[in-house]
Amino acid sequence: MKFAKKSVSAVLIILLAISGVSGPYRAADPAYDTALTDEASVSYPVISTADGEELSQAIAEAIPSDADEVQSFSFPEPVEAVADPNENDPICIAGENAVNFGKLLKDLVNMFETQDPGYDQIIDEDLDAIEAVSRKDHSVASSIAEQWLSTYMNRNYQQFIYNGGENAGDLSSSGIPNSRQHAIVVLGYALDFGQMQEELKQRCDAAAALARSFPSSIIVCSGGATGSYNPDKNTEAGLMKKYMVETRGIDASRIYIDEDATDTQQNAENTLRILQENNIKYMTIVTSAYHQRRGQAVYNAAAQLYRVRYGYSVEIVGNYNYGRDAIPKQDVRIAAWQIAGILGLPEDVINTIPRRIIEENSSDAS
């Protein structure tokens, strides 16, 4: 068998040597030459009739006289495609794996608050426990942990800040693509007496500048009728679109809105549905700088859950922000609770996650 393989290789080498090139080869065929189109970018060498005797002699010398040995050579059978090992795994996040997910979120909070490197091993153990129940669940949990580490635990985490003006400025290192498969996702902020607060307007200013710098991208706004007093039932998404069109000159056809969401979970799920309908593969989150890490953590968790349920994937590739970077004192606790809500964890499990402490005169943005 080894000899037969070497003999075949020798024939190929001879053919290439006679043709004078190292590339694909074929016999002369004028009809085929005429039919070549622009799609055939490879130049095929031609073996002319004059070379026939030399070629025949070379092949005869290269192939052993033992015909049985040559005939014994066979190419391997095609390898069957391997099925996704997670395809038939159950989703047990809110069921059998709920306690494991609750512990993972609790440990992620403690990792940030203590800055104890020993939590690396603890997180790995949490992920192993989840994987033992369901590999599909494990793919969600791993992404949640990786996103947490890359934002909350990463000292080199970089935010891109809107500094005013019509355009977003130099974002060549941001990872944001100018593509029709990219969406600018603008996170909302509670209305005050049915109207946009200044912070929401500034998030929209940043989104509009980003949209002008990336004209192929669509914009997605999500948010229903919020605020303690909103008699006209104005929605965050509706007012955001109106503001960007009328005040910032963005083409209304680029802006997609969800006016039904009333909480973080619905915001994320409805946004993902819009992204799927528009064949979006990448998204950039636009919000206030202090809110960006939590926004990425929550929307990534929602995207991973959506992926295992519906088979649609979208990747968070960038961030763009109004204001300056800071991590509010209890931001990680709020993030963990919101992720737990998105995952649908039972209340008794959520209550094991460190609570947010309500302080006097404290305020929390969405």
Write the layout of secondary structure elements.
Layout: H1 2-19, E1 26-27, H2 30-35, E2 46-47, H3 52-62, H4 67-71, H5 98-114, H6 119-133, H7 135-151, E3 182-186, H8 198-213, E4 218-222, H9 236-246, E5 255-258, H10 264-277, E6 282-288, H11 292-310, E7 315-322, H12 331-343, H13 347-350
Written overview of the protein:
The N and C termini lie far apart (69 Å). The protein is an alpha/beta fold. It is globular. The chain has 3 domains: 2-71, no CATH class; 81-152 and 342-349 and 352-356, no CATH class; 156-326, Rossmann fold (3-Layer(aba) Sandwich). The protein is built from 13 helices and 7 strands. Helix 1 runs antiparallel to helix 3, helix 6 runs antiparallel to helix 7 and helix 11 runs parallel beside helix 12 (331-343). The chain has a 5-stranded parallel sheet. The protein has a two-stranded parallel ribbon with strand order 1-2. It has helices spanning 2-19, 30-35, 52-62, 67-71, 98-114, 119-133, 135-151, 198-213, 236-246, 264-277, 292-310, 331-343, 347-350, and strands at residues 26-27, 46-47, 182-186, 218-222, 255-258, 282-288, 315-322. Helices cover 45% and strands 9% of the residues.
